[in-house]
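Exam revision sheet. Question 4 asks you to relate a sequence to its structure. Input first:
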Amino acid sequence: MTDKENMFELVIDYDEQFHEQVQSGDPNPLADLTIRAGEYDLTGASGDRFYLDDYVYFNLRKQLDAIESILAGNRNELTFYNIPNDLILDPENATIFVSLVKSSGEPKNDAVPEDGVPITMRAFIEGVVNAAEEFHEKVIEVNPDLEDSEQMRTLRDLIQNAKEKLSDIN
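Answer key, structure tokens:
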């Protein structure tokens, strides 16, 4: 595997809007996202511009929930809540082909290969876990009262489960 196949990253924009929502008690803020797999930005973002927004907790939960199914070899299509796009996770052995498509079925970023970007299972799980841990930390930092919320407890459990699955991967 190349270095590119070992990279999956979910970048969340922790801007003023994020802080306002979390400060007001919302553990599932709407925020700008960028998804990078290998050398591609699946969302078509460039520089510091984001081209996708979604409810962060719901998005991370879907990705964390999908890990067991992906490891079992099942294709997953994760629909975003705010904008009708699907994150396609198509596993093949130790590789996942990742793509982001519009509701029309067309790629969100035309530069992404038609079959998706190949990344390792490990890269996907590590990328989702890293994003989820960072999100959890930011939410609690902005509003410590949310630490015991149902969403943050669920997120901690899902992160722990993902880490256990990760330890099973060579």
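Marking note for examiners. The first helix runs from residue 16 to 23.
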